[in-house]
Amino acid sequence: MKSKKPRSAVREFISWILYLAVLIVLIFLVVHFVGERTVVSGDSMTPTLMDGDNLIVDKITYRFMEPSRYDIVVFPFQYQEDTFYIKRIIGLPGETVQIYEGAVYINGKLLKDSYGFEQIRNPGLASEAVTLGEDEYFVLGDNRNNSADSREPSVGNIKKSDITGRAFARIWPLTAAGLLD
What we know:
- The protein has one helix at 9-34, and strands at 35-39, 54-58, 72-76, 84-91, 96-100, 103-106, 109-110, 130-131, 136-140, 158-159, 165-172, 178-179.
- The model has no long low-confidence stretch (mean pLDDT 89).
- Strands 1, 2, 3, 4, 9, 10, 11 and 12 form an eight-stranded antiparallel β-sheet that branches. A four-stranded antiparallel β-sheet has the order 7-6-5-8, with no helix packed on it.
- It has one domain (37-179): Ribbon (Umud Fragment, subunit A).
- It is elongated, with a radius of gyration of 22 Å.
- With 181 residues, the chain is an alpha+beta fold.
- The longest helix has 26 residues, at 9-34.
C-alpha cells in the first residue's frame, strides 16, 4: 500500500486563501445582484412593517418581470445619499391615480385594497389626477397619513430603473418572520 504524501504547509495555505477568495466573490455577487438585507426605519409601512424589522430584498426578479400592484419595493431617496424608502406600489405605468375624499382611485375606479386602513387626509400631488408614464409607478406607505410617498414632490413617481428590489421576506423579529404579501 502506498501512503499519501502530506501536503506542504504552503500548498495548504494557498488552498485556503483561494477558497476564501472564491467565497468572498460569491457573497459579493449574491449581495450585489440577488438579495440584500435591509432594516425598516420609521412607521410609514405600519401595520405591515414595523420600525426595526429586518427584511430580505429580492434584487433579481424585476430584471425578468415587471413590478405588480401591491408589491413592496425599495428605492433610493433622491435627496439624501444612502437613504432608501420602502413603499407599496399602487399605480402602474399608464394608469391615472387620484386621491379623492380620502380614497384612492385608479383610472376613475375606487381601489379596494386592504393595506391602507384609514381615510387619507392629505392627497398631496394626487389631489389632481396623476397620469403615470410608461416607466413610472405610484407608491404609498401602508400608514397613509404618516408616509412620505408619491404624493410628495420630494418623492413623486418612481421609475422602474430606480427600484432596487422587492421586499419579500421579514427575517427579524423571529416572531414575525415570514414572506411578505
